[in-house]
Amino acid sequence: MILRKNGDAGYLKLLQSWRPLTPLLALAVVDRDQRFLLVNDRFASLGRMAAEYYRGRSVDEVLSGVFPPVTSILRQVFQDGQPRERLELCGGTSPASDVEKWWQLGFAPLASGAGIIDAVVLSVEDISDRKQREADSHKTIAEWQAAFDAVQDAVLILDRDMRIVRANAATARFLGIPPEQLAGRLCQHLMHGTSQLVEGCPFAKAVELRTRVESEIHDPQRDAWFLVSVDPVFDEQGELCQFVHAAKDITEKKRNQHTLEEAYRQIRQLTERLEQENQYLRRQVQPIRSPSGIVGQSPALLKVLGQVEQVAKTRSTVLICGETGTGKELIASAIHELSPRSKRLMYRMNCAALAPTLIESELFGREKGAYTGALTKQIGRFELAQGSTLFLDEVGELPLELQAKLLRVLQEGTLERVGNPETIHVDVRIIAASNRDLAQATRDGKFREDLFYRLNVFPIRMPPLRERLDDLPALVCALIDEFSTVMGKTIESVPRPVMEALQRYSWPGNIRELRNVVERSMIMCDGPMLHIELPASATSPATREMTLAELERNYILQVLTQVRGRIRGAHGAAKRLGLKPTTLESRMIKFGIHRHSEPDPERVS
Questions:
Q1: Residue range 384-431, pLDDT digits in tens
Q2: Distance between the two ends of the chain, CA-based, in angstroms?
Q3: CB under 8 Å to 249, separation ≥6 — which residues?
Q4: Angle between helices 260-285 and 128-150 in degrees, nearest 10
Q5: pTM score
Q6: In the chain, N or C terminus with fewer CB closer than 10 Å?
Q7: What is the DSSP code (8-state) at residue 149?
Q8: Residue 223, class by beta-carbon neighbours within 10 Å (0-12 exposed, 13-18 middle, 19+ buried)?
Q9: Nearest-angstrom CA–CA distance, 276 and 492
Q10: Contacts of 45 (CB under 8 A, 6+ apart)
Q11: Do 483 and 489 contact (CB within 8 A), yes or no?
């Protein structure tokens, strides 16, 4: 990808908007003279110097002892304007260091308006751990194959379609076929006169019983007896994925049973270990997140993703509704990434995060001296997002007087900065989000009806986590991968009972609550198996009998959490519980429940 400078936004904002980069990458901007213009803290930490140390210094001076080919690669990028990605180099942490590490480098050219490459973004990522895992995995495979071939019985590993995945040396000798020619071929086609060794085996019984099954089979063409065993292998979801098929010649009086059980146990352990190593390596090389960070395949989520794909190519305004913590901002990012405006940065604004007096300046901009304290000119989010997308989170929190100005931008595409009557034309696509029922807010007079209809052109409802629990295992794996990188921990598995308990919980805080629970469990985890501890309200009913009063108290707390502490009104806890507000308040006092959230507007008056 060739990146372009973004006018007044500068290189710093450009780096922040480049989606393939993460905070874990070391980043630097280099000019045509191969001198550093800008580095981030991660890059500066490689040389254990302050970021300002690099500004103006040549790449050759700083990196020649660490990454000798960098200067020649930079020269090529400036000449042909083509990016270089995922270049792997071995070098030290600094010119004076004798510690060898592996690095993955990326070179992304920055083009000016005339198409001239005037700078290059250099990204550096430490991949030493991944390289070590790859080496360990290759060593594991070699050890596994040696042990596999040492088994004297003919052993085949078959997939569920009866194709050979692996065969040991004894099988190759038995069939008279080189081992490298066996993989991928149907087992029945190879047995010829010994086809009964496969066709007579109890495959169906092994699958039904979900365990190893043995059978003595006679091959009349060879006049030989074989003790054949079939062991089904199931994946983490309980689906059949492989068979281990072993045949032992027991012709000599059907005795001398060798230690088939021990050999078989070793084969299964080695097979499972190899599969775990391969799965772990695949997770490291192939991230499970999509570019927008959306994880899951549940019907509820697929419906949302289908709506995203439908509306992304258009210019229509989108209103994303859903409970807090469901991932509304990720959906907004996905719409922008799939839209024709994706080359520009999507700007965001949380309408609930600023005081009402500051929102207008943030949205529409202001002139210097527009009011007391306005010491400089400020460009608003609408102007910054010219030709791009503006995401308005918690749009229901906008004051009524600003809702009228927002409506004008949506209708006419024009605005005025605070302190300047000059009309400014803008081309900005609006994606709005709210965790409130805006239709009800309109009926209550707290949100303009005309603005609601303007925003509600294409509504998307983000389902809460309790409606997409099928996605929970994938979400947990994604969070584990994320925190493993940050914390430097390796998690190999989550016990099935733990995952089932997670799927039974209602998750009132949605994905945000799940994220906090996984992060807390990762901090406390000291081994390869992660035991995730659910919130107390989820685990207490399963550990002891609860009194009616405790159940009532927990239920009131759960409802108060869902409504963010509000008691009165159409969306208050009293309405949901079917109680009078005064009755609910009395019970809260009785149970010692204290409200820590936003005040009821009906009580403030």
A1: 899 999 999 999 989 988 999 999 999 999 988 888 888 899 999 999
A2: 56
A3: 224, 225, 226
A4: 160
A5: 0.45
A6: C
A7: H
A8: exposed
A9: 8
A10: 26
A11: yes
Angle 472-487/496-504 helices, nearest 10 degrees? 120
Assess contact for 106 and 87: CB atoms under 8 A.
yes
Q: Which residue has the tokens 């989170």?
A: 393
CA distance 144 to 134: 15
DSSP string over 415-426: E--BT----EE-
Q: Which two tokens stand for residue 536?
A: 């107390």
The token pair that represents 257 in the structure block: 């049973």
| Number of other residues whose CB lies within 10 A of the CB of residue 304 | 23
The span from the CA of 69 to the CA of 427, in Å, is 44
**Nearest of 391, 390, 397 to residue 436 by alpha carbon:** 397
**Percent of the residues in the chain that have a pLDDT greater than 70, as a whole number:** 75
For residue 358, give Cα distances in angstroms to 259, 362, 374, 433, 446: 79, 6, 11, 20, 20
Report the C-alpha gap between 199 and 184 in whole angstroms: 18
Q: What is the pLDDT of residue 371?
A: 73
Tokens coding 567: 């008691």
In sign, the C-alpha dihedral spanning 160, 162, 165, 171 is positive
Q: Tokens representing 152?
A: 């004297």
Tell me the Ramachandran region of residue 565: left when phi exceeds 0, alpha when psi lies from -120 to 50, beta otherwise: left
Rg (CA), the chain: 32
| CA 426/CA 351 separation, integer angstroms | 20
- Rounded-to-integer distance, Cα 573 and Cα 578, Å: 8
**Structure-token match 């149970």, residue found:** 591
Question: Both tokens of residue 540?
Answer: 């207490």
Decide: 346 and 336 in contact? Cβ < 8 Å.
Answer: yes
Residue 529 tokens read as: 């198996």
Q: Report d(CA 417, CA 379) in Å as an integer.
A: 8
Please, are residues 247 and 264 in contact by the beta-carbon 8 Å criterion? no
Tell the residue number behind the tokens 């707390």, with chain if given.
Answer: 557
Q: Both tokens of residue 455? A: 């925003």
User: For 153-187, b where at least 16 C-beta lie within 10 A, e where not — what string?
Assistant: bbbbbbeeebebbbbbbbbbebbeeebeebeeeeb
- CA dihedral in degrees (11, 15, 19, 24; nearest 10)? 170
Place of tokens 């507000």: 581
Burial of residue 446 (CB within 10 Å: 0-12, 13-18, 19+) is middle
Q: How far apart are CA 515 and CA 289, in angstroms?
A: 15
Q: What is the pLDDT of residues 191-203, one digit of tens each?
A: 443 444 455 566 7
What is the distance between the alpha carbons of residues 349 and 329, in angstroms, rounded to a whole number?
A: 11
Burial environment of residue 271 by CB neighbours within 10 A (0 to 12, 13 to 18, 19 or more)? buried
Burial category of 281 from C-beta neighbours within 10 Å (exposed 0-12, middle 13-18, buried 19 and up): middle
Number of H helices, E strands in the chain: 26, 18
Any idea which of 219-223, 233-237, 388-392, 429-433 has the lowest mean pLDDT?
219-223
Diameter over CA atoms, the chain:
104
Bridging pattern class, strands 154-159 and 117-126: unpaired
Q: How far apart are CA 97 and CA 91, in angstroms?
A: 9
Please name the residue that has the structure tokens 């194709």.
Answer: 163
Q: Using alpha carbons, select from 190, 191, 176, 185 the residue that is nearest to residue 158.
A: 185
